[in-house]
Design a protein that fits this description.
This protein has a domain of 107 residues. The chain has six helices and 15 strands. The strands form three sheets. Strands 1, 2, 3, 4, 5, 6, 7 and 8 form an eight-stranded antiparallel sheet that branches. The chain has a five-stranded mixed sheet with strand order 9-11-14-13-15, with helices on one face. It has a two-stranded parallel sheet with strand order 10-12. A hairpin with a 5-residue loop joins strand 2 and strand 3. The two termini are 43 Å apart.
Length: 369
């Protein structure tokens, strides 16, 4: 990765340059976080630059239990604060399916950032870097949000304001991630093409660079696109999530048109989301996909999208149907949203529920937990 850097930039102002010249607070001085990495004999073997932040190591068991307890108590504006920021992963475990986004919400506890991650392993023997088992699908893990460490490959060419022994030839930082940054993003080039290992058209590249790899027009191969890859041109991509520290909380979310299903636990715990818009190409909604969200209304737009919302639509003339979810069930815990997604008429589901309630029955909406 390259960051352009004027050769005469000072060490103190360098991070300001990388952040687009913006401070996080009015009183903050920019600090340039360069560190030495030494071997077992104490010799410096390379230098790192710490910029941005992303999901890092998982927290210990005691802290994880504390955070989950606070989350379940609902004290999200007091002890545990939901920031509204999300981190993207892949919710698909089966091969040959379209990319399906799964999102881990960020929280703050005592001034420190954490993320609530729902385990989605591809097998029972998957382990974390510390050797512990990831757990079955649906296992909740809390992880630290940490600065990202990059090795400075052109350290000797840095200006003297950064490296006192540098020759000043560098016009940019030449950076390589010190450790793997993210897992569980599929490669997904078109498996039928003759260059099926093509990085330039892969879903991984799309996620890291914020592009739609299904529609390569430049800087890629237009002939062989990743037909099952995702569209990462919006807010949910690595560049935005890791380096845009001033990004706004996500309170409304539109499922990208490249995704045809919403996987298990897709938005589990994303409590700041008030509205989700689902295009007509989505065929299914996974278990616990909206767990923790407080939707009260479902409505269909004239354009065909299905919307789940905490508020009634502001422009009801643009809707074909509107129902209150509270009239279907007293609790949405375990509610199968597929019933509303896969029906042609929301009103028919509402009438069925009303008839069953009168006869002391209930609509079969609970999926197997």
């Amino acid at each position: 990765m390259h960051y352009n850097l004027p050769s005469n930039i000072s060490a103190r102002s360098a991070l300001g340059f990388l952040n687009g010249g913006k401070k996080q607070t009015d009183n903050e001085d920019f600090e340039f976080d360069v560190r030495e990495v030494k071997n077992e004999y104490g010799k410096v073997i390379y230098h790192t630059l710490h910029i941005g932040e992303y999901l890092g190591t998982k927290v210990n068991e005691d802290l994880s239990n504390t955070l989950e307890l606070l989350y379940n108590r609902g004290n999200l504006n007091q002890d545990l604060r939901a920031t509204g920021l999300l981190y993207t992963g892949n919710g698909q475990k089966q091969e040959y399916k379209d990319f399906a986004g799964k999102y881990s919400p960020q929280f703050e506890y005592k001034g420190i950032k954490y993320a609530r991650v729902i385990s989605n392993p591809n097998g029972d023997d998957i382990i974390y870097s510390d050797g512990t088992i990831s757990g079955k699908a649906g296992t909740i893990r809390w992880v630290n949000v940490e600065p990202i460490s990059f090795v400075i490959r052109n350290w000797d060419e840095m200006p003297k304001s950064i490296n006192p022994n540098g020759n000043g030839k560098a016009k940019y930082f030449d950076l390589r991630a010190e450790e793997a940054i993210i897992a569980n993003i599929p490669f997904y080039p078109n498996e039928d093409d003759e260059n099926s290992t093509m990085w330039q058209n892969s879903t991984v590249r799309g996620f890291f660079n914020g592009i739609d790899v299904r529609n390569i027009t430049t800087n890629g191969n237009p002939k062989f696109t990743a037909s099952r890859g995702g569209n990462f041109t919006g807010e949910c991509n690595f560049l935005n999530e890791a380096f845009n520290l001033a990004r706004e909380p996500i309170v409304e979310f539109t499922i990208p048109e490249s995704e045809t299903e919403i996987p298990d636990d897709a938005f589990n715990g994303c409590v700041t989301i008030n509205k989700i818009t689902i295009h007509s190409g989505v065929k299914s909604i996974g278990k616990r996909a909206f767990e923790g969200l407080n939707f009260k209304y479902a409505y269909k737009l004239n354009s065909g999208e299905l919307v789940f919302d905490t508020q009634p639509p502001k422009e009801q003339e643009k809707c074909t149907e509107i129902i209150e979810l509270g009239k279907l069930t007293k609790s949405l815990v375990g509610f199968d949203y597929n019933i509303l997604l896969q029906t042609e008429s929301l009103e028919d589901i509402y009438k069925l529920s009303e008839m069953l309630n009168k006869n002391k029955f209930s609509i079969p909406y609970i999926y197997r937990m």
